[in-house]
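ESCALATION

Customer reports they have been waiting on this structure for their group meeting. Please prioritize. Original submission:
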Amino acid sequence: MTAPATTTWFDLLRHGEPDGGPKYRGHRDDPLSPLGWRQMHGAIGADDRWDHILTSPLLRCRAFAEQLAAERGLPCTVVDGFKEISFGAWEGLTTEQVAERFGDGQARFWSDPERHAPAGGEPILDFYRRIGEAWSHWRDALAGQRVLLVCHGGVIRMTLAHVMGLPPGRALGAFLVPYASRSRVRLDATDQGLLGCLVSHGVTESGS
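Update from on-call: job pushed to the front of the queue and completed.
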């Protein structure tokens, strides 16, 4: 007799706008701006139901995740493995400043990120492996539950690369991930193995 499938749902929520405007942040620990807080609250509906919240340790994710968990009486786990990629010497700089200081390094990174890491930054293959380890652990540990993961654009891209079998360099530029956007992944553990599916991607508070 075939055993029933175990279904797990993950909602991947990117943080809202941080203080300080557009720049490379990576491991830089800037808090959310007032607009960022409004974006995050707007991304959550009264009908949303989760069993567990996971969050990056960085403040722009963690502060909202812990507040939401306290409001809804949910467990909240801070996972270091879901921290954003490190941009090394680029952190805290705008794209214009990186271009001025590092020449064509930025263009080379975005055209071929697997071969050209930012100066002093985390190689994307290392980042991909780090996210994969965190993802596989929590995917299995919370099997059968509805989970909210509050994290970063890069983390969402690498998670979807694992779910969809995409090379990390391609996934980095393949997905638009606006502030406070949500993506939903469904995982079914069946007799044929674990089947992962991207149900929705890039949904914002306006539904666009």
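Sent to customer with the following note: Residues 6-84+126-203 form a domain with the Rossmann fold fold (CATH 3.40.50.1240).
Escalation resolved.
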